[in-house]
Amino acid sequence: MTDIETLTDALLAFREERDWAQFHNAKDLAIAISIESNELLEAFLWKSAEETKQEKIEEELADIFSFALLLAHEKGLDVTSIILNKIEKKGQKTLTRR
What we know:
It comes from Paraflavitalea soli. By secondary structure, the chain is mainly alpha-helical.
């Protein structure tokens, strides 16, 4: 089992214990990712990078990744594959621009 599968299984168990699956459709998970991303941005607002609290960054990134993994699960997506495919596509775009 990969680390991503382990994390996803832990998130699904956590969600099941709280009966939250009813709220976790693709649309609402995508909205949650956006909201949590904005909370991460807020941690940096009006501060230098040094002033931003590491704990806040960790908390918001955990929320973002958690919702992203749940969204991938709901859509039947293999996170490793889609990220590697995106890296390959970006690499091709970069090479053609040079």
